[in-house]
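Dissemination and training. As part of the outreach component of the grant, students in the summer workshop were shown how a complex can be specified as a set of sequence lines and then modelled as a single object. The example used during the hands-on session is reproduced here so that future cohorts can follow it. Participants entered these lines:
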Amino acid sequence: MHELSLAQSLLDIVCREAARLSAAVRVNAVNMKVGRFTALDRDALSFWFGLLAKEQLGTAPDLVIEEVDLVVKCPGCGAQERLEDPPIVCPRCGNGAVEIVSGRELDVWSIEVDEPTPTAG
Amino acid sequence: MDIPVLKRLLAANDAVADQNARRLAQWKIFTVNLIGAPGCGKTKLLEASLERLRGKPRAAVIEGDIRTSLDAERLSGYETPVVQINTEPFGGDCHLEATAISGALDMIDLAKTDLLFIENVGNLVCPAEFKVGEDAKVVALSVTEGEDKPLKYPLAFRESELLVITKIDLVEHLEIDLDRIEANARQIHPAIEVLRVSAKTGEGIDRWLSWVFGRLSKKRPEA
Ligand SMILES: Nc1nc2c(ncn2[C@@H]2O[C@H](COP(=O)(O)OP(=O)(O)OP(=O)(O)O)[C@@H](O)[C@H]2O)c(=O)[nH]1
Ligand SMILES: [Mg+2]
Ligand SMILES: [Zn+2]
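and obtained this result:
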């Protein structure tokens, strides 16, 4: 399982983005979007992210993972539909040459940080 | 306060994979990323392939394993450069990442290479998620693993252009329906090509090599 190294990549991205805002900013939550058709053990990622963040930041932001549906688009009939299960074919016309529109995401969407306080500094 | 980030987690890996791909394209090397469960017959397939190729076209192999150089040793003696990568120093990873391949490419004389086989770490899940710079992913599934594997591990079958069903010499001892393996793979990836081979008897190895040559000649139409 590669969730430990993914958790470190995630933490690196979060730290870099936070540092761009200000040196001392506190990250409360990290929002991710993960496709239904992405090979990821979400619990393992959360576990490792929490552990690494505690170790390296002293605090663990909430990790919020939003699942993105598997959506395919059919070049034959033009349908764009959500798929719950295989087969990965157009549910309208049965065409197998569908394009995956979403469902393969593994994205860091946003981070939630404290409002800057005017008195700070 | 919500601050947008909008970054792909695998962006760093994919950037290095693209660098590898450009480097391989410069020398017009056709590169296969061979994935499949532990023991499905990846190394044996490469042994049978190198045995036939004997340097024409000139192949090179990158062997990925968590530990040991046993697979690289099996592939020595075919006039083919073999580079072993162990992922243990990088944390015992379950798959090869693009940076590991980048390092391995430094150890291969690319000017004297036509074909590159990358044997990924035995695992039917994680390698599917990581590009390393290949032209094609190929998934190997042995007949002892069962018909349902494409449905249980869909990503590997979706990402691969070719499914090689291995160890078909064993079919007579098993209750396995090869047509059902194919049908299940096509549920996940209707356009997937399928070949049936036995590295033990040699059955189907020519067809597998024809597939490789076909893809190689697409990459260098003038040759
Ligand atoms: N009968 C038969 N046995 C095979 C065939 N191909 C491989 N094997 C046997 O299956 C076992 C595993 O084969 P390997 O080639 O080492 O498999 P692998 O996928 O490289 O394994 P890892 O690298 O450890 O993931 C060995 O004992 C091989 O001899 C085949 O075509 N027929
Ligand atoms: Mg092997
Ligand atoms: Zn359609």
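Helices of chain A lie at 3-21, 42-57. Students were then asked to discuss how this feature might be tested experimentally.
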